[in-house]
Design a protein that fits this description.
- The chain is an alpha+beta fold.
- The protein is elongated, with a radius of gyration of 49 Å.
- α19 runs antiparallel to α20, α28 (about 730-750) runs antiparallel to α31 and α30 packs antiparallel against α31 (about 790-835).
- About 55% of the residues lie in helices and about 10% in strands.
- A hairpin with a 5-residue loop joins β8 and β9.
- The protein is built from 31 helices and 16 strands.
Length: about 850
């Protein structure tokens, strides 16, 4: 009895092993069928090569040879009688009796054709040494005609050349038919014969139906980690039918990053340790070559004796969530990278904004900021500070006689020479037109005079197309009693005036001014100066920065107006007053910081009440300037720049005519001109010519006629050979846009949606003013998305688009400046080396 039980146990074990072995092949039914078809095709091909299966092409060739021999006998009789007509008649009858004969001929031993039909000489390709082919057959005459020659026949091809011809051959069609038929029959046979050994039958039908209802993928594995059952959800996700999955080891599926290392899988731990595993995240490649992400849970299946029979694996597809998370992380990373790039370009623009674009020297505003810092440091530490004013002699003649292009080359070479000879801590500034200012920290008057002489000698050695230039220098020092930076500049400017009016091409120190005869200055327009008062430029910069953050468009307008005022005032009023005029232009709209956004950025016409609020910005600005600087001339220029020359009927309290300060009258013209040529949301910009015409129409009523003509003359001279800078994006524009979008990215990163909405609205308004349609459209989309409470990913994508557009604007402006600077420096260095 025990022996019988042992035999039964062995039989059951053998049966299970056999069953498992067959189950290993269940997933490869198609592969088995393909292998069997391959073997069948190999047998057929071998039979054909051994001649066991006749080849129809070979039979056709043999039949052609037989017919040609028969026809050659008749032709030989005609040849033996030396009858060409009889020979041709035999050949023609032969061709007429067969559709596959293209041409035929009788050729003598010496190679000449004796008789031919069907243009045989063109169709025949074989030479005398080549054997016959299946399409071209040569038949030797027999008997007495054997020594005379032979017959040649060209048949139509039995098969077409190339792959297509081979596919039409009998062998290929036979093998193809057998392979296709056998594959279908083998597949049906294997499916039926192996159905009884399907491992899925181990799971009851009612259980399989219940598992197929689940939305998550579910697998049932045996002890060897082979798939016993896969529900429909997993089939749909993976794209592989359950029949192909059954019997495969789960570790052989293309899990990302594991490559068959089963000890890392949760089901392996569940089988090995007997404990459930949960929360493991894995990625699996589908048939579409994309990856799906799953949260995998695995639990062992036990029998009544607590032995582990297999494991149930549940796979929750979290691919959409993972993709959204990855996309959001990717977008945020791109956003951070773009923000850093914007910040870097903003810093580059800040550097460019401090330089004069033509000469690469410091511009006036950046020079004044550093001048005040150096002056305060010299006063605090009691070290000397010297200032040198430089002017190119007869520069107007150079422009008039040799053209402005030559004048620009002189300015570039002059600035390159000054910057090359200046020490590291020296400041070189293009003060205006052909004037330069050099600040020498910790240099007394003697050293400043020595440095000026070195500059003068170096400049006098420059040569331009056969002519040389000279320059005059005025020198002063803080040790000579100047109490403010402006007074130090004025002393150096007056020393320069003495140098130019006493022979030029020399250096004059302010302490030697009494050695020169007093020269009466040219008459100036009436102005009031306040030499005893100072205007700290750091405070001016702080106020301008406040206005820039509050309303970048107005700040840029103020900067442009300041440039126009300096251009007009230079040579018309003293240098000290030009400085005050420049500050007045920079701050003439500072009162707009007190105007609400709803009015300041309103795209439509203003109501009378809103107009009154806008008009109040002048008084607000005057109050700010008075409390900050206590400078009456500066406050008066800002207060009266809306005064009319012939009297404003709406403001009879304002002065008119010459009673209004010269600074206010110049500011009025420059402010009106820049407003005319600038785009507004409610109108397009006028051309400079249209603006000039309107200024002349208002001359004598709204504007001072003399100042209008001076303004038009100087601006025409500047723009005659240079592009109008008000028509292109300025450094400040690109930088302000970049700063706004940089703040946008930071607000998005910190989830500050109210701040996002405010910044998006400002950016949209600023882009409309500057005709930057693309930026304005995307900013509007961002504003709408914030209003509709869009999700973070959508906001990040729109902000990323804004950053990309901003980088494009910045690169479009930075790169030409860089390339132009490189070219200009190469020209200057080449001219210097030649000299």
């Amino acid at each position: 009895m025990f022996k019988q039980l042992r035999l039964d146990s062995n039989a059951d074990e053998i049966f299970m092993r056999l069953k498992n072995g067959v189950m290993n092949f269940l997933g490869g039914r198609t592969l088995i069928a393909a292998v069997l078809v391959f073997l069948t095709a190999a047998v057929i091909t071998t039979a054909i090569s051994l001649g066991l299966i006749p080849d129809r092409n070979q039979l056709a060739v043999e039949e052609r040879n037989s017919v040609c021999k028969t026809v050659s006998l008749n032709a030989a009789l005609a040849v033996s009688r030396n009858s060409r007509e009889s020979t041709l008649e035999v050949l023609q009858l032969f061709k007429a009796s067969r559709n596959d004969v293209l041409s035929a001929a009788i050729r003598k031993k010496d190679g000449r054709l004796w008789a031919e039909i069907g243009n045989h000489s063109r169709r025949w390709d074989l030479n005398s040494t080549q054997d016959s082919t299946e399409d071209e057959i040569r038949t030797q005459f027999l008997g007495a005609a054997q020594s005379w020659g032979h017959m040649e026949v060209v048949f139509s091809p039995l098969r077409k050349p190339g792959v297509w011809g081979y596919m039409q051959s009998t062998t290929f069609r036979l093998v193809t038919f057998v392979c296709v038929s056998c594959f279908v029959l083998y597949t049906i046979f294997l499916r039926r014969i192996l159905r009884g050994m399907d491992p899925s039958q181990a799971v009851p039908t009612r259980v399989r139906s219940a598992l197929n209802i689940l939305a998550e993928g579910l697998l049932v594995l045996d002890q060897n980690e082979r798939i016993m059952l896969a529900n429909h959800a997993f089939e749909d996700i993976l794209g592989i039918p359950s029949d192909d999955l059954q019997g495969r080891q789960i570790s052989t599926l293309p899990w990302e990053g594991h490559a068959g290392q089963t000890e890392y899988f949760p089901w392996s731990f569940a089988l090995k340790e007997g404990n459930p595993q949960s929360g493991t995240m894995l990625r699996l490649q589908t048939c579409n070559q994309d990856y799906r992400t799953f949260i995998v849970n695995a639990a062992p299946v036990r029998n009544h004796t607590n032995a582990i029979l297999g494991v149930v694996v549940c796979l929750e597809d979290v691919t959409p969530l993972e993709q959204e998370r990855n996309e959001l992380n990717k977008t945020l990373m791109q956003l951070e990278a773009s923000r850093k790039e914007i910040s870097r370009q903003n810093e580059h623009l800040r550097i460019l904004a401090t330089l004069d674009p033509l000469t690469e020297c410091l511009n006036r505003r950046s020079f004044f900021e550093q001048f005040e810092t150096q002056y305060m440091a010299s006063q605090l530490n009691e070290f000397p500070l010297s200032c040198i004013m430089v002017d190119i002699d007869h520069f107007k003649l150079i422009n008039d006689r040799r053209g402005h292009a030559t004048g620009d080359a002189v300015l570039k070479s002059m600035s390159a020479t000054l910057r090359r000879l200046a020490e590291q801590n020296d400041l070189v500034c293009r003060y205006g037109g052909e004037e330069f200012c050099i600040l020498l920290p910790d240099a007394d008057l003697e050293r400043a005079y020595f440095v000026a002489e070195r500059f003068r000698n170096a400049v006098s050695e420059l040569e331009f197309n056969g002519f040389r230039v000279t320059s005059s220098f005025g020198i002063s020092s803080s040790l000579l009693g100047a109490t403010t930076p402006q007074e130090l500049l004025q002393q150096a400017d007056k020393a320069l005036y003495l140098a130019k009016n006493n022979g030029r091409n020399q250096c004059v120190r302010w302490d030697h001014a009494d050695r020169f005869p007093a020269i009466e200055e040219a008459p100036k327009l009436h102005t009031v100066t306040s030499e005893t008062m100072t205007i700290p430029f750091h405070s001016v910069s702080a106020l301008l920065s406040t206005l820039t953050y509050r309303d970048p468009c107005t700040a840029e307008h103020s900067v442009r107006v300041a440039d126009l005022c300096v251009l007009t005032g230079t040579g018309l009023i003293p240098a000290t007053d030009v400085y005050v005029l420049e500050i007045a232009a920079l701050l003439h709209d500072i009162g707009k910081v007190g105007i609400p956004d709803s009015i300041l950025m309103k795209p439509s016409s203003l109501t009378p009440e809103e107009r009154n609020i806008i008009d109040a910005h002048v008084q607000i600005g005057v109050n700010i300037v008075r409390s900050t600087f206590a400078h009456p001339d500066l406050a008066e220029a800002i207060m009266h720049h809306h005064a009319w020359y012939d009297g404003n009927p709406l403001r009879p309290d304002l002065p008119k005519g010459r009673n209004c300060s010269t600074l206010a009258r110049i500011l009025a013209v420059a402010d009106a001109y820049d407003a005319m040529i600038s785009t507004r949301v409610y109108r397009k910009a006028r051309t400079p010519e249209e603006a000039f015409s309107e200024l002349r129409q208002g001359a004598g009523t709204q504007f001072d006629p003399a100042i209008v003509e001076t303004f038009i003359k100087k601006l025409s001279e500047r723009t005659a050979f240079h592009e109008d800078e008000t028509k292109k994006i300025s450094y400040e524009t690109a930088m302000n846009i970049g700063q706004t979008i940089e703040n946008l990215a930071y607000a998005l990163d910190t989830r500050q949606k109210p701040c996002l909405a405010i910044l998006a609205g400002k950016l949209k308004f600023a882009a409309q003013i500057r005709d930057l349609t693309n930026i304005g459209d995307v900013a509007g989309r961002l504003e709408d998305a914030i209003a509709h409470d869009a999700d973070l990913e959508e906001l990040a994508q729109i902000t990323q688009q804004l950053l990309d557009l901003c980088r494009t604007v910045q690169r479009a402006y930075i790169q030409p400046v860089i390339e132009t600077s490189k070219i200009d420096m190469c020209v200057v260095e080449r001219e210097s080396s030649q000299n």
